[in-house]
Amino acid sequence: MKQMDTKTLANYINGEWMEAEHTAPVINPATGEEIAKVPLSSEQHVEKAVQAAKKAQKEWALVPAPQRAEVLYRTGTLLREQKERLARLLTMENGKVLEEARGEVQEAIDMAFYMAGEGRRLFGQTTPSELKDKFAMSVRVPVGVIGIITPWNFPIAIASWKSFPAIVAGNAVVWKPATETPMMAYELTKILEEAGLPKGVMNLVFGSGSTVGDAMVHHPNIQVISFTGSNEIGRNIAAECGRQLKKVSLEMGGKNAVIVMDDADLELAADGIIWSAYGTSGQRCTACSRVIVHEKVKVELEARLLAKIKHLTVGNGLNEEVKVGPIINKRGIEKIKRYIEIGVEEGARLLTGGYELIEGDLKKGNYFAPTIFTDVKGTMRIAQEEIFGPVVSLIPVKSFQEAIEVNNCVEFGLSSSIFTQDVNKVFRAQRDLDTGIVYVNAGTTGAEIHLPFGGTKGTGNGHRDSGIQALDVFTEWRAVYVDYSGKLQRAQIDVE
Ligand code: UN1
After folding, report:
1. What is the pLDDT of residues 421-474, one digit of tens each?
2. Can you give the residue ranges of every domain in the chain?
3. What keyword terms does UniProt attach to this protein (predicted)?
C-alpha cells in the first residue's frame, strides 16, 4: 500500500491556520503507523480563539438566518463531493470499517442539510397577551460562544450534531476534537472555510490531557459547553459549569441492552445484536453490550450468534471484506482485557472471543475478537460498566417484567431495544424502558439525525444532540412584548 505523507495539522483561529509549538503523533489503529501530527494547543491558543469567536459572533448573529444557512448548504454539498476521500481518512485515523465510515460522513451531510433548513424556520411562538393592544412572542436568540468537546468514536458525526445547529442559530464556536482523530476536525473546518463561513465563527484547537479543555470550561466568555465523552470528565465539566452558571450539555455513554423475548424472530434478533454489539468494534455509546434473553430461547440465540460471529472478519477497515476494525488504542485493548478477566472471575461463562484469538499480523494493530459472555447476572460488573469494546453479556430472564427491570437497573440510560412479535409488549416496553432511545425489532444503534439523541440517568443531563431539540442547547428563549396601546398597561393588574 502507498505510504501516506505525514502531515502536521494546525489550529484554526480567526480564519488563520496556526501551527503549535508541540505536537503528538496520530496513529492508525489498524497498523500502528503514524499518519499525522496533531498540534497540542496552549491556553493562549484558547484565549485567542475565544476572543476571535466573541468578536465574530456579534456580526454573525446579525446575518439573517437563511443566509447563515447558505454556508451549511455549501458545507453539505462539499461533504457530499468529498465523501469517499473523507471516509477513507476516517477509517485510517479511527479504524472503523469503510462502510461505517461512509455512513458516518453521510450523517454529517444529512445534518448539514437538515440544519440548513432550520435557517428558514428557527421557529418561535406567538402568544395572545392578556392585555388589549399588546403583542407577545417568544423568539430564539443565539447564546454567544459555544465550546464544543468531541470524542474520537464519531469524529465528524458528533461534531456536526453540535456545530451545525450552533452555527445556524447565530453562535460562534471554539471546538476541541479528540487528539486521536484530528484529521476529521481539520477536514471539516477546511470545508466550512471553503463554504464561506466568516473568520472567527469556527475556531479549532487541539489538546490531550486537560489543559485546553479546562481553559475552555473555565473561560468566562464561553457561555455553553457541549460535551460528548467519558462519564468522569463529563461530571467534572458539569461541576465547574455549575459553579459558573454555564449551560452544559453532556452525553456520556451507555450500557445498552437488547431484550429478546421468547416470541421473537430469533434470526432478526441475532442480526440486530451482531450489528449493534460489534459494529464500530463496540465503540459506540449506543453499542449493545447486554442481551437480556428469555430463558426459553437462550440456547438457540447463543447458537445463532456463534454462527454469525464466524463470518465477522476482523482486520483493517480499509479492506471491504472486514466487518470488525481495530480498537482505538492500546489503552482501549487493556481495558477490554481487564473486563474479560473480571467477567471470568465473576463466574460468567465465556462463550467465544477474547484477546487470544487475535493472531499473526493482526497483533500489530489494536484488534480484539468479538466476544460473548453468557449466564451473566444483571448485577455483575461486566453487565453494569461500559466496556467500549466488542463484548456482549447474555443475561437470561424468566419474564417480560424481569427483562424490563434488568434493562433499567444500570447507571446509564441511552438506548434499549426489544425483539418481540407481541404488540402489547411493544407498547409496554416503549413506556417502561427508561432510556432516551428505544428500538423495537431493531438493534440499539443507528440514530437518525432528525430525532433527538441522548439519554437519561448517568448518560447525560437532560439535553439532546441532533434533532430539532439540539437548538435548545444553542439558543436562549427571549420573551418579547410589544405594547401598542399608548398607555401604561400593567400585567395582572389592568386586566379587565
Ligand atoms: C456515540 O457513540 O456517541 O446512532 C454516537 C449511532 C451513531 C452515533 C453514536 N450514529 O449509534
Report:
1. 999 999 999 999 999 999 999 999 878 999 999 999 999 999 999 999 999 999
2. 7-252+460-479, 256-440
3. NAD, Oxidoreductase
Determine the Cα–Cα distance for residues 25 and 370; give it in Å rounded to an integer: 28
Average pLDDT of the segment spanning 17-24: 94
What's the rounded Cα separation, in Å, for the pair 455 and 458?
A: 8
> Comparing C-alpha atoms, which of 193, 184, 203 is closest to residue 83?
184
- Just give the CATH number of 7-252+460-479: 3.40.605.10
Q: Look up the CATH superfamily of 256-440.
A: Aldehyde Dehydrogenase; Chain A, domain 2 (3.40.309.10)
**pLDDT > 70 in the chain, percent:** 99
Q: 98: CA distance to ligand 1 center in Å?
A: 16
Active-site residues: which are they?
251
Question: Both ends of the chain: CA-CA distance in Å?
Answer: 82
Residues near 189 by Cβ (< 8 Å), separated by ≥ 6?
A: 12, 175, 202, 204
Atom 3 of ligand 1 has which residue's CA nearest to it?
A: 285
Q: Residues 92-108: what's their mean pLDDT?
A: 98
What integer is the mean pLDDT of 391-399? Answer: 98
- Residue in 154, 161, 181, 276 to alter for ligand 1 test, most ligand atoms within 8 A of Cβ: 154
Does 153 contact ligand 1 (Cβ within 6 A)?
yes
Q: How far is the CA of 160 from the centre of ligand 1 (A)?
A: 12
